[in-house]
Design brief:
By secondary structure, the protein is of the alpha/beta class. The chain contains eleven helices and twelve strands. 31% of the residues lie in helices and 15% in strands. The protein has a five-stranded parallel β-sheet, sandwiched between helices. The protein has a five-stranded parallel β-sheet with strand order 8-7-6-9-10. Strands 11-12 form a two-stranded antiparallel sheet. It binds N-carbamoyl-L-aspartate (NCD).
């Protein structure tokens, strides 16, 4: 297997890669002491341009549990980005001091852009409303641990499927596994983006779109609840109208399978009532812990890869024509044109097709 040198989208993952990563994670769970010094002398850089609790802390904890050091920021105002430094230059500097970079940004495609300028592996910890592949690793680990494997089940994804980046990566990753049927539960305004639906159809996966959680719940083996992503809305009134559309309560669980798993990437806003927390089916806090364990497996791999000078970037002012205001290519205008894995007519950073749907 060719070594994977970055994790910016689900396209960087393969079934074979996942199987090896998960096997390493299981060994870390079984024998944590063996790994305590396995990244001694290595350094992780964490660049958080957007708020984070679980992702940031779990990466830091994962690195430290492997014996590595960590530096980074959680407020870009304290960095030269506030003086107008380009992302490309910040990445070149950060890569020269570290062995792996984790980046979260409100801009779609930021991690892809970062990977073009880094001599160390880049991990996408969330790029706007686009992807969040390491949350997907946490989700897959939770399902695999709780069900004994991944495949042959019905998963319901409920809430903000339009802006919820964890849903986008999870759905794409699930297409690697056999026999998964999807119930996409959202209001019409928050449907899953077309580029993900296209991907599912191309892979021959079945999906049902519904606006009713109550109708779907009896069918499900896994329910993945999500928060309505306030920070991605431009219209505050629209957010207020949609934010409480789904609230999972203990009462609703009476109609669910007795072994249905309830996942949530967290933070929750109000979409899972507190009385659900004590239900055996609620696994969202464990899911956060699995997130740290699978990130340990990922760092163990990435931090030991040899440095590799990035291929020369043939960029120039104005080479990218993406009109999505949330896309990194919109603000970092020197970036080279990239072709998207989900179609040659889509932006290689944010996957949107022109003309872009406005945020
Ligand atoms: C998610 C995120 O940041 O996308 N949280 C996380 O990383 N665990 C989900 C969210 O913010 O709703």
């Amino acid at each position: 297997m060719t070594p994977v040198r970055k994790l910016v989208s689900v396209d960087d993952m393969s079934r074979e890669w996942w199987d090896a990563l998960y096997a390493r994670c299981c060994d870390i769970i079984a024998r944590p002491g063996v790994y305590a010094d396995s990244c001694r002398g290595k350094i992780l850089a964490t660049m958080f341009y957007e708020p984070s609790t679980r992702t940031n802390f779990s990466f830091q904890a994962a690195a430290q549990r492997l014996g590595a050091g960590v530096f980074g920021f959680s407020d870009p105002l304290g960095t030269s980005a506030s003086k107008g430094e380009t992302l490309a230059d910040t990445i070149r500097m950060t890569a020269s001091y570290s062995d792996t970079i984790v980046i979260r940004s409100p801009q779609e495609g930021a991690a892809t852009a970062a990977s073009l300028y880094s001599e160390v592996p880049v991990i996408n910890a969330g790029d706007g409303g686009h992807f969040h592949p390491t949350q997907t690793l946490a989700d897959l680990t939770t399902i695999a641990q709780k069900r004994g494997g991944i495949g042959d089940f019905r998963i319901g994804l409920c809430g903000d499927l339009k802006y919820g980046r964890t849903v986008h990566s999870l759905v794409e990753a699930m297409t690697m596994f056999p026999g998964v049927s999807f119930y996409l539960i959202s209001p019409k305004e928050l449907r899953l983006p077309e580029y993900i639906l296209d991907q599912m159809s191309a892979q021959g996966h079945e999906y049902t779109e519904s606006e009713s959680l109550v109708d779907c719940i009896p069918e499900l083996d896994v329910l993945y609840m999500t928060r309505v992503q306030r920070e991605r809305f431009h219209d505050a009134a629209e957010y207020r109208r949609l934010k409480d559309v789904y609230i999972l309560t203990k009462k609703m669980l009476e109609n669910a399978k007795s072994d249905m798993l309830i996942l949530h990437p967290l933070p929750r806003y109000g979409e899972i009532a507190r009385d659900v927390d004590d239900d055996m089916r609620a696994v969202y806090f464990e899911q956060a812990r699995y997130g740290m364990l699978i990130r340990m497996a990922l760092l163990l791999d990435f931090m030991h890869l040899p440095r590799q000078a990035p291929a020369p970037v043939a960029g120039g002012q104005g080479t990218v024509e993406c009109s999505n205001p949330a896309c990194i290519a919109h603000s970092e205008i020197y970036l080279p044109k990239l072709i998207s894995g989900s179609g040659p007519d889509r932006c290689g950073y944010c996957d949107k097709k022109p003309p872009v749907q406005m945020f």
